[in-house]
Please model this.
Amino acid sequence: MNQRHNTPLAAWTRGPAPLGVIADDFTGATDVAVALRRAGLRTLLFFGVPDRTSEGAYGSEAARLPEHEALVVALKSRMVPVADAVASSLGALEWLREQGAGQIYFKFCSTFDSTPRGNIGPVLDRLAEATGADTVPLTPSSPEHLRTQYQGYLFVDELLLGESHMRDHPVTPMRDSYLPRLLRSQTREQVALIGLGTVREGEAAVRAALAGAGARGARYVLADGIDESDLRTLGRAALGSPLVAGAAGLAAGLAHAHAEERAGHPPGAGWEETGAETKAPDTWEAVGRSAAVLSGSCSRRTLEQLTALTDAGRPAYHLDVVATPDPMALADAALAWYDALPSGGGAPVLYSSAAPEELREVQRVLGVERSAAVLEEATGLVAAGLVERGVSRLVAAGGETSGAVVAALGVTGAHVGAEAARGVPWIHPLGDRPLALLLKSGNFGGPGLLLDASASPAERADSP
Model:
């Protein structure tokens, strides 16, 4: 077998230690956190690496944390330069190990959002070195979100990745669908593939294939998977690996394997069965009834969801960054509009989402980086202003939007609550703060998700 020379942070031995997850964006973190919760693992979610120095922070003392079997650290590293992504990921790993985490899962997007200059490969390289992982099983397959891998090719909504909506993504256009080639462009390590036939032979066959790939010098082994049973098989086969990577689909398979190993926590036991001291609060009872929607995602699905809101007569405000390219002025105008709303009009939506041609015009006028930076800061200011005005249920659509909201509100850790849609949970900040957040990845949820999630109890009662 190939020999690697590295210095892992700490040796890991398979056992009941918590599963540690490093997610490369906020909505992806909520997606994976709810997958872990659904599998029966009590899960805590943290936004950024907790500050070890501030009073009351969750630093190096694991005893401060509520009871848990999984810890998820959400980063904003997907679109940042490689050096920054590596540094933040290693910081998250160090904190997770301080909390006693054992196996580490690196969560990236199910559409493999990246480019040849992307950071998935470099982050994997450093995490593999730090954990001492000779062979890393991975797959972006997440069948419940219509992301599947077959013969090494990634399919999105039953289309090849390079023929899907991701082909024209404004930041990470994906033109190649063959995952081994995509990953090889980002890493100095060898990449191997386990086909669906081997996966369907079962856990032992997958373990043998992983060992064989490692013996031939491959560090990263992409595995096919097209349904949940494939991912359960992969999860069981990966249970002994120090580092595993992929989207929420494989994370769920791995979580089920962890649940099966845990005495007293049979697979399928949900959060509600684990005790009142760690039970996530009910969204309606905990935070009251005032809601608002903030949307920055330009995905096709989010645009459909915004149309459903406006078709239902919800008040809507466009954050026009071209007309007002100053974040403070843009936020002030939005909040002044909110203050002038009559009562009884339903939860408002404030959005910067745009169709592809409109987005290209914004980026032409202001540039990609400037327009994104202004909107991110303005969105955070609007979120803080809405909460100051009594909004206690805030729905955020889009990864960057969600990150801006969480940062502006100072949310550092949260319980994972009930799902508004598959993979889209409500989260409740740790402590007594009366606030519920729904952080939605751009492409997640049905057309009515934003409308339903922000509805008042009366509106929900009147809906068919």
Summary: Residues 5-13, 59-63, 263-288 have pLDDT under 50 and may be disordered. The first helix runs from residue 26 to 39. The chain has two domains: 19-278, 283-462.
